[in-house]
Amino acid sequence: MRGEARKHSPASPLCHTDTTTSKDTMHTLSFTGERQLRYPAPDVARGAMLALIALANVPFWLAYFPETPQAGHTALEAMNGADQWWYLARTVLVDRRAYPLFSILFGFGMAIMASRTMERERRAAEDTFSAEEVAGWHPVQRQIVEENIERHVRRVAARLIRRRGLWMLVFGGVHALLFSGDIIGTYGLVAVVFAEIIVMKRAWPRVLVGSLVAALSLFGLWGRGFSMGGTPMVLEYHGPFTLTMFYPLTSLGNWLGATIATVLMSLVVPCVMIGVGLARWGVLQDPRGHGRVLACVTVGGLGVGVLGGLPFALMQLTWAFAGSAAWSYPLFHASGVLGACGWLALFALVGGGPREKLGSVCAFLSAIGRRSMTAYLSQTVLFILIFVVLGVAGVRSLGVAVSGLIALVVWALIGIGCVIAEALGSSRGPAEWALRWLVAKSARRRPLPAFLPVLAGQSGAPAEAAVTSSDAVTAAAAPCAESETPARGSVSEGE
Questions:
Q1: Distance CA 240, CA 151 (A)
Q2: Looking at 66-75, 388-397, 464-473, which range is the least confident one?
Q3: pTM for the structure as a whole
Q4: Is-cis flag, bond preceding 270, omega within 30?
Q5: Dist CA 275 CA 252 (whole Å)
Q6: Which sequence spans correspond to the domains of the chain?
Q7: I need a labelling partner for 274 at 20 to 30 A (CA). Which of 63, 77, 282, 358 fits?
């Protein structure tokens, strides 16, 4: 059989191993290993992150209570001491710190998914050649084949990421019928637009794209901060709003515009690129080996996040004059990226290195993290149920501190549900299963391209003519470059 000799060879004689997927790293890509070893840090980080997401999103729902005060001094006067102190803590630790953490982990997941896909496709391509065939190649032919295989595997990985992103846009649109602040669609759009950048081996395109979007975002934030002046509590309240029969359509329309604006005018894209870089570095796969670095990032990142958010928080509470929001508001956002890195480093240290059995805290967080999309969508459902019940019971408004407690209760309830699902043997949540199935079913079956240029002995042409350029070979093979089957093209983010 063709390729049989290669399948039994201890090492591939054809292609070099991708520097982004070393042997040790590849074993850590599946956070639940074949020998029941667990690499829990990424899932622990996702699970803890969802608590921050719940705290950051709960103010959205306060606007639907009938006596919610208007933004500004009215909202500030309605806050008691506990509300103000909680607002201060939330501003410097959670707000504009949760979504960068979410973005970093999304980029990490996409990079891991791409690495695993490329490794499988690379092995499949190499297995089309026998060791005897490879031994008879001209060195230039060998180089051309290696280059063509690498182009092929990255093309397949990019298609997978883009297809996953398209389905995430669908999920986000459905979620937006209930919650216009949905972020799933934003990440889906990032995956669609920047799929090729994510799978690139070189780092400079990611640095360039991230820097350009960051500069555009900070310029826009400066403009919004300038327009704020010294108005307090502009971020806490957006209403009040009134629920109508047209709410789903209105919410969807708001989401469509916000999704595009978030990609262009926020720090989502730079943070996604940071996550891709972390996956290539391997720091989350091996927290013990990077313990000192993670400890420094924890202290430094959280410290900068607090200090960077403090001027804007104090101005919002009118506790101190911190100058113009034109500089404190962009600083609030920019420092949030470092704050998110601090949180991620802390959660990675909590998750620790690979082991057969997780402690109770890590097991709880990991169960949520393995079902992060399901947990995120469940937050919206529970918020709606709780606040509808409170509204029916006659509650006219809700304090900031109380809403924070409700958010933590919602997160804890979801966590309990995830633990129960884990105990019952379910490895993913319903949303993860649905996304995985849709991505796999929508894959197109394509034959493998012809990686090898025409041999001199077969064509009768001189050797110099037989060794054609890699660009020419790739161009000829491009129409049938994807060899993705549903089984190969459905790696979940949490794996």
A1: 53
A2: 464-473
A3: 0.84
A4: no
A5: 28
A6: 42-480
A7: 358
